[in-house]
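fyi for ur records
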Amino acid sequence: MKKFLCLVVLSMAGVSSLYAKNCKDDLVSFISAFEAKVDPAYKNAAGASYKAKISGKESDYNRSSELQVELVSIYSNKDDYKKIKEMKTCADVKKDPDLKRRLDLISNLYTANQIDPKKLEKMIKLQTEIENKFSLFRAKVNGKELTDNQIEDLLKNSADSKELEAAWSASKAIGPVVASDVKKLVLMRNQAARELGFKNYHQMMLKLNEQDPAEIEKLFNELDVLTRPAYMKLKQEIDLALSKKYNVPVNKLEPWHYQNRYFQEAPQIYSIDLDNYYKKVDIAETAEEYFDGIGLNIDEIMDNSDLYEKKGKYQHACCDN
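which gave:
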């Protein structure tokens, strides 16, 4: 009986050793096949997404959605995911840092998409519908459509509180347009994340992008404590300057008095006007000259870029690789 057990153990060890020896080759082959599928699918999806953002056309957003579904179908493959989990246990893969790193990244991509393909498709379609609504939205002030840039200019330069309020409020009218769909998408994503064992979608994406939610929260709380005294001091200075500019008591200042839709940029409270230095400068040309100067030619990027406003175009700055 002891001899039999010994033979079984030796036999299992032999199989394990053999699998570990061959596992690295299996992973290299898997990655090669994975890249051959993902490369064209990713390029097609990214290209379609970019086309939709600069056109605003429903047909382009539908095409973007279709190609995104095709890309995600690669990551949602259950058999591939099973192989990935098996290969993560291989001794020879663990000893190769580069190969292990590639496997970890691929594993995270697959993990996020291991739910019902129909649910994935619904989420992708809803997300692109929301993006399309953002593309088409333009704020209306006194019956006139204004772009985001025009709203920002008005908030920065007008001294009329009523005009400022009208412009700021108009920029927020996108809320009711997308609110229902956004809530629906949040619920769908959170349910999907819970099915995969995560608390919610936000935490899932942080963890799969190798971030610790608790560590991030701790960091921001620490930054808040460290910067709050300086922030409050500067905020008082800003409030006093804006109160004087708009002839409004400090305690009556409203969001539209802060010269920006989201209070993301510092209000202009000092006499210096930095914009004045760039009024006669061709920003695109200057950017090309700068990158040429440091040995990075960006002609191809510029040729494929869409830099200026037009009807239906997504108004937020973005870049698709």
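The longest helix spans residues 2-55. thats all i got for now
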